């Protein structure tokens, strides 16, 4: 075979198909640092298709898709180099890079084979410079916060967060449950000059209303009966110099909202039972999955606090609005749980398709729990469609047929509604899921189920 041209190497389609589907990753760079080939292992290691990587320069991947690469060393030493790395999606790999020379002895291509370390039994070190570098996730993601994404929406959000992190103004993060609001708050903190100072987190929904005040503001000696005799510092004081993250801010009692607003504005507060005010330097980030503006209109959230908090407002899209991230996160969690549970699972294309088409109402939290269960419970190496929980299969809207003879429009509408409710309820047996599927409120779904199904049952 003539190796003069990389195209010719792959002239035979069968041969290309074989390499495309090898479990090990194969990559080829030309002498201009351009990626000319990568096989489908790119999905597993980086969560993206080969097509989206081919043709791009090495510099656009290095440090983001993997840690420090062997490529520059191969160009420099003209020798084969092997190195352990961790890919962006957390796969432990061993990369072996081999130079391919032209007739003048110059490097024409660098071919890399990237093997998952778990599947390597033995590597011959002969004729090979073995260069082992312990790379942690720190080198691979933007910071020590493992924020995994491929979508343009998240790329824009992270670049906005980097800018926001440089200032002290409050920030409000919105998004459905499990979309990563807390993680993004940590990301902003980790990108800021405050990163070495505390990140204090309070979930306003998980603490009873009368305790939130003492948790946040602390109290002085003998402030109230049952309190710690020595008094207690509140989270605001503990966050001094750093970031205070108020999760589920919508749950903060209205009576406390004015006091919170004052701390954010004046950067000083008086602990419960105290005389003197304490000055603090804090950056406040708040998050909610509620419609705060609607709460403002209803009078359950202070307008001035809302406008103080949303100097910067970031809305994280749901996972179903950023399908590219589902793929990346799926591989990320397979790698993560494989390591945690000492498994070696792969996933079939069909299973990936099902995961990609599901709507993930619980977002990334639901996805991670689903993958964790699969990694633990599936006994075969490959996770296939048959292992995927049935509720993840995309539900096709029920086909309905109605008898229109002698019926008024209202009667026909009611008949149609009845069929849809019965079929959807039979599928899910749960009014929350019926509501999600039919895009109606849960109380409405419950009422319709009662109307059509309970009545049927009672007949
Ligand atoms: N982009 C991401 N990359 C990796 N993991 C993520 C990402 N986004 C979220 N997660 C993970 O998903 C889980 C849920 O994220 P998080 O708690 O930040 O969501 P949330 O929006 O604050 O949820 P809630 O509204 O219920 O408090 C966490 O385990 C988090 O680490």
UniProtKB/TrEMBL annotation:
Q: Extract the Pfam families matched here.
A: AAA_lid_14 (PF25601), PAS_4 (PF08448), Sigma54_activat (PF00158)
Per its record, what are the GO molecular function terms? ATP binding; DNA binding
What are its GO biological-process terms?
regulation of DNA-templated transcription
Q: Which domain of life is it from?
A: Bacteria
Question: What sequence ranges are listed for the domain PAS?
Answer: 11-56
Domain Sigma-54 factor interaction, chain residue ranges per copy: 147-376
Question: What are the protein's UniProt keywords?
Answer: ATP-binding, DNA-binding, Nucleotide-binding, Transcription, Transcription regulation
The name this protein goes by in its record? PAS domain S-box-containing protein
State the organism of origin: Serpentinicella alkaliphila
Q: What is the lineage of its organism?
A: Bacteria, Bacillati, Bacillota, Clostridia, Peptostreptococcales
């Amino acid at each position: 075979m003539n190796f003069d041209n990389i195209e010719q190497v792959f002239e035979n389609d069968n041969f290309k198909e074989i390499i495309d589907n090898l479990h090990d990753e194969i990559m080829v760079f030309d002498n201009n640092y351009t990626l000319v080939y990568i096989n489908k292992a790119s999905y597993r290691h980086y969560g993206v298709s080969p097509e989206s990587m081919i043709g791009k320069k090495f510099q656009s991947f290095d440090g983001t898709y993997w840690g420090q690469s062997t490529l520059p060393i191969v160009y420099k030493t003209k020798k084969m180099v092997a190195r352990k790395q961790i890919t962006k999606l957390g796969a432990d790999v061993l990369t072996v890079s081999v130079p391919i020379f032209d007739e003048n002895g110059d490097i024409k291509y660098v071919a890399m084979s990237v093997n998952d370390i778990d599947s390597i039994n033995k590597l011959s070190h002969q004729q090979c410079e073995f260069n082992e570098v312990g790379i942690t996730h720190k080198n691979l993601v933007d910071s020590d916060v493992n924020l995994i994404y491929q979508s343009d929406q998240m790329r824009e959000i992270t670049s906005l967060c980097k800018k926001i992190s440089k200032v002290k103004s409050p920030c409000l993060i919105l998004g459905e449950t499990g979309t990563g609001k807390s993680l993004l708050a940590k990301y902003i903190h980790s990108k800021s000059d405050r990163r070495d100072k505390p990140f204090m987190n309070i979930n306003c929904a998980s603490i009873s209303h009368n305790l939130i005040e003492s948790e946040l503001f602390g109290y002085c000696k003998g402030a109230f009966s049952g309190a710690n005799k020595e008094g207690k510092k509140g989270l605001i004081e503990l966050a001094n110099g750093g970031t205070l993250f108020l999760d589920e801010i919508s749950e903060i009692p209205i009576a406390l909202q004015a006091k919170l607003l004052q701390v954010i504005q004046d950067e000083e507060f008086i602990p419960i039972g105290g005389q003197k005010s304490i000055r603090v330097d804090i950056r406040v980030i708040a998050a909610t999955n509620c419609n705060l503006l609607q709460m403002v209109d209803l009078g359950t959230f202070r307008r001035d606090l809302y406008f103080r908090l949303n100097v910067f407002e970031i809305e994280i899209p749901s996972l179903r609005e950023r399908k590219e991230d589902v793929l990346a996160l799926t591989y990320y969690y397979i790698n993560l749980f494989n390591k945690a549970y000492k498994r070696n699972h792969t996933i079939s294309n069909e299973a990936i398709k099902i995961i990609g088409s599901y709507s993930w109402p619980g977002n990334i939290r639901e996805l991670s729990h689903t993958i964790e269960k699969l990694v633990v419970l599936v006994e075969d190496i490959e996770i296939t469609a048959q292992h995927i929980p049935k509720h993840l299969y995309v539900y096709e809207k029920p086909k309905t047929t109605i008898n229109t003879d002698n019926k008024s429009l209202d009667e026909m509408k009611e008949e149609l509604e009845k069929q849809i409710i019965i079929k959807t309820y039979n599928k899910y047996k749960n009014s929350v899921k019926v509501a999600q599927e039919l895009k109606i409120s849960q109380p409405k779904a419950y009422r319709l189920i009662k109307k059509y199904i309970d009545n049927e049952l009672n007949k």
